[in-house]
Amino acid sequence: MASANPDKVAEIAELMADVAEILPRPADIPDVVEDQDTLVGNARLKAVAIATATGMPAIADDTGLEIDALDGAPGVYTARFAGENATYADNVAKTLQVLDGVPTSERTARFRTVAILGYPDGREIIAEGVVEGHIALEASGADGFGYDPIFVPSESGGLTFAQMSSTDKHAISHRGRAFRSLKAQLAES
Known about the structure:
Maf protein, 32% helix, alpha+beta, 189 residues, globular
């Protein structure tokens, strides 16, 4: 696993449990600087770095929250929307602050995840998952992580990701869709 984010690693391990054993990124491998301007570019950087360092296939992903009222921002800057060392709470607070006064009908957004399985020989499998929704007026729910308390998927009946069980979330989430696509491509190859 290229990610060192324990929440993301746990979620991906759960999604991939029936096809692969997910090993954590070795502690001696430093973070990969995500300096690309696309989700694919950042995911590829991480997959290549970890596959090269370990000699094993590596799974990497990058996720962006695209808010229409912000012209697609934060996008590739989703994890650091409120600053370089922002916490989940900081990012949620900034999102709600910049959207203050924007009516629900104009708070449309989507989560996009790109997942890459990179092999040490340079081969790769790329998958993408998208979920449409909107940004809630306030945070609600206690489960999940990141923007889950304020993202309301169109298919959730009005619940935020943080109000859903992990099973229900995985069934419709961007990450769930990306990793189901990755698993399907693995089965074909």
